[in-house]
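Quarterly update, task 2.4: D-xylulose-bound model.
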Amino acid sequence: MEKREIIIGQKEFFKGIGPIHFEGPESDNPFAFKYYEPGRIVAGKSMAEHFRFAVAYWHTFCNTGGDPFGSPSKQFPWLEASDPLGRARDKMDAAFEFMTKLGASFFCFHDVDLVDEGSSLVEFEGRLEKITDYALEKMKGSGVKVLWGTANLFSHPVYMNGAATNPDFAVVARAGAQVKMALDATMKLNGGNYVFWGGREGYLSLLNTDMKKELDHLARFLHMAKDYARQNGFQGNFFIEPKPMEPTKHQYDFDAATVIGFLREYGLMDDFNLNIEVNHATLAQHTFQHELQVAANAGLLGSIDANRGDYQNGWDTDQFPVNIYELTQALLVLLEAGGLKGGGVNFDAKTRRNSTNLEDIFHAHIGGMDVFARALLAANSILENSRYGQLRSARYASFESGAGRDFSSGNLNLVQLAKIGRNNPEPEPRSGQQELFENIINQFV
Ligand code: XUL
Ligand code: CO
């Protein structure tokens, strides 16, 4: 059993819950991992290294269950202090207690998750300085690290027409000030990565929108942010997180393919990778594994926001992952791609509005980590012990020799290709054998 330091602040918030350890699938202890065994080596790396699990500050410590139909349903004892900095410190104590008890070594944050903004950016900057000092102290003792930081450029009403893509330069400049502060905070906390999720970068109506200008401005803004961070010694990755809609009708970072096209067009390919979120993929009418594969094809598979949507409705429900069959297919892509470029698996997921016990937060994360671990074992076993790879390559065997190989390697022109096509007998039908492939997944989960 691995040893780790549990960091409890002035008050213990999760009383009665100790460190979560691996106990195996036979255990009936709900506060134990059944599959996630951090030190276990799978495909040459420990499970902890494969995943680098991160807790999302905004859902887990800030989201008290309010929705468009009702007020908050959850009482978080770390949000009770009346002064903003006291509240921010209590929240951070709760976060470090939770993460060290759970055994998640990373967290992700928006600037405004750490501490309330106050009435001006200048006030916010002062508060951020203090709370990041406090975070540094807590990080030192705990071994917990920042997977990525980001700026919330979508909640404040000033961003209702966009941030970097706002038609008003004054708002773009304000967004620049906020991103600079969020980059400074991330660098101060030695964050491995920095995320841009499009927030309100998109449009509600094309009638009042100059799309070309807005996209040019977005690219200009990203270049500036990247240049600033690089000049100040940041060596991590920048991630763009695609999402097709919500909050705008049309988000500019629609899906992985759209983002890759944008990065290519604007010369950002060297510094930016992708952060693929499950529920964003499904909102874009893709599977999660499709989006991972698109990012991997471009060599840009940076990080994952883990969650799931709901098949019966069409919005971003951000539920914790549970689906072993689907996740195994996603991890096949991840393993074949050779892992994530600098990122990890961040639970961008929230417990349900009526999951009001503090221990529900543990159940959610334990379940999420276990299903990833189980899917990793299944995917690795499929690659090592099944005919999956062989069956898939066999479909392309005709490109391995002769004219097929000449085609693949660019040694045929259309006239030569057409001649072969005309002279050959009509090709025999060849089964795609989808059901056989599906059964292999089922056999290993
Ligand atoms: C919104 C979303 C964000 C980003 C960070 O759908 O996923 O939480 O991950 O801004
Ligand atoms: Co996300």
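Highlight for this quarter: Residues 110, 150, 195, 197, 241, 243, 277, 305, 316, 348 surround D-xylulose (ligand 1) (CB under 6 Å).
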